[in-house]
Structure to design on (348 residues):
């Protein structure tokens, strides 16, 4: 990204009044090193990165920090509430994030228990309400449930982010019909968040009409994360173009591409 | 060597040192110390962390004014990699 403002007619998307070119948001977790994190994120072309909020290590206060490798001046930090299983923990975490980073665009996730870490929608709705009241702009991780998604949108969430499959599972889009339904009824951006395993999954999410894709493990746990980051960048762009181009109809019989006239006899 | 007189220990703690909890660990600080002094003693760059005291955010702008009290529970956090 060269940091220049997007021009009119360029295919961009907007969340909470901020405009972005890249439709890929990447996580910064699970990499082997901070160097690898920085390199993979660069290759992904992402402009927004998710980050977690955790206690500092008091015994090693000079340990290198994420900010030293992934600059918040260059990338929009999207603090998350990973690991929060109650609304109050999520709200506390994001208040700390706002103080640490000075901005109010956040990713809310209130999770149910392992092994699925499926979104806890009761907790999510409760936390979203409190955060919006407190001035946050909430991008919300949620179940692939059009009714809950609509409630979150009506409440004032700035982006709806249903899961493709459980976090870190790499299972892809397990319910594409629901993702499409959520997108069709929404007036705010819809992102597939969680479950993406490989490039074709990201392309598929974009082909369904999603505004962007959020992923982490698919890159970080690939054998070659930097190459997979590049693949994801291409996949999101390809999927977006395919969506805008409009795919051909499904036919259940053959329809030859070559003319049937002028054949030799 | 521990002072054999419990009263003496008690009096010493009350006058000079207080115990607070920082990120789940007990820590002795001088009575009258501020959040700013605590962060400096730990060696943290205040621009990269956020502080919560007894579940209330301490704004960065007032670190030097907030005096620590015995029993305070502080959380000092920063951003790390996450999805």
């Amino acid at each position: 990204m060269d940091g220049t403002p997007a021009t009119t007619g360029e295919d961009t998307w907007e969340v909470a009044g901020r405009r972005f070119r890249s439709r890929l948001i990447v996580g910064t977790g699970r990499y082997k090193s901070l160097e690898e994190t920085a390199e993979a994120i660069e290759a992904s072309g992402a402009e927004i990165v998710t980050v977690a909020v955790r206690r500092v290590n008091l015994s090693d206060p000079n340990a290198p920090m994420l900010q030293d490798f992934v600059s918040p001046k260059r990338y929009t930090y999207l603090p998350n509430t990973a690991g929060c299983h109650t609304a109050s923990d999520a709200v506390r975490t994001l208040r700390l994030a706002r103080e640490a980073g000075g901005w109010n665009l956040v990713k809310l996730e209130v999770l149910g228990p392992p092994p699925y870490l499926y979104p806890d929608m009761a907790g999510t709705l409760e936390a979203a309400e409190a955060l919006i009241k407190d001035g946050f702009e909430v991008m919300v991780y949620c179940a692939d449930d059009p009714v809950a998604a609509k409630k979150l949108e009506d409440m004032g969430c700035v982006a709806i982010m249903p899961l493709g499959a459980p976090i870190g599972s790499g299972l892809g889009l397990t319910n594409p019909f629901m993702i499409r339904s959520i997108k069709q009824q929404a007036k705010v951006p819809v992102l597939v968040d969680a479950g993406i395993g490989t490039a074709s999954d990201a392309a598929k999410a974009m082909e369904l009409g999603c505004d962007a894709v959020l992923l982490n493990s698919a890159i970080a746990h690939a054998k070659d994360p930097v190459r997979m980051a590049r693949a994801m960048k291409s996949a999101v762009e390809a999927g977006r173009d395919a969506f805008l181009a409009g795919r051909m109809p499904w036919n259940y019989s053959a329809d030859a591409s070559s003319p049937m006239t002028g054949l030799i006899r | 060597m521990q002072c054999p007189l419990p009263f003496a220990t008690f009096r010493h703690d009350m006058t000079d040192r207080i115990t607070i909890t920082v990120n789940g660990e007990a820590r002795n600080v001088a009575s009258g110390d501020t959040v700013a002094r605590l962060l400096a003693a730990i060696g943290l760059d205040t621009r990269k962390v956020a502080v919560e005291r007894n579940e209330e955010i301490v704004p960065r702008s007032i670190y030097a004014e907030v005096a620590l009290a015995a029993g305070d529970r502080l959380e000092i956090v920063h951003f790390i990699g996450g999805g």
Summary: The mean pLDDT of chain B is 86. Chain B has two helices and five strands.
